Amino acid sequence: MYKYAIEIFYSEEDEGYIAVVPELPGCSAYGEREEQALQEIKTAIDLWLSTAKSMGRKIPKPHGREILRDLLDECSRQHAASCE
């Protein structure tokens, strides 16, 4: 259901986990545990998308997985070229 890349990291300052969606500017969430941050970011994604839609803003197409695939393909090509 969620096709956007989600990054989760621990914040010493906040003493908890921060989840962000780089492709959705300003879309972030907090949780005391990683699982909680993930659950909260799913809610934040829904709210971000519904707000953008109601305001007539353009909704970015998710590219997270495609970018990762392209990077892996490029690494594979580079590795193959170095072995020749």
Globular, elongated, flat, extended or rod-shaped: what is the shape? flat
**CATH hierarchy, class:** Alpha Beta
* Topology as a string of helices (H) and strands (E): EEEHH
- Label the CATH architecture: 2-Layer Sandwich
- Proportion of helical residues: 40-55%
By CATH, the topology is Double Stranded RNA Binding Domain
User: In terms of per-residue confidence, which ranges show pLDDT below 50 for 5 or more consecutive residues?
Assistant: none
Mean pLDDT: 86
- Number of helical segments? 2
What percentage of the residues does DSSP assign to strands (E)? 15-25%
How many separate structural domains?
1
Sheet having the most strands: 3 strands, antiparallel
Quote the distance from N terminus to C terminus: 42 Å
Number of strands: 3
Report the C-alpha radius of gyration, rounded: 17 Å
Please list the strands of the largest sheet in the order they lie side by side: 1-2-3
Broad structural category: alpha+beta
| Oligomeric state of shown chains | single chain
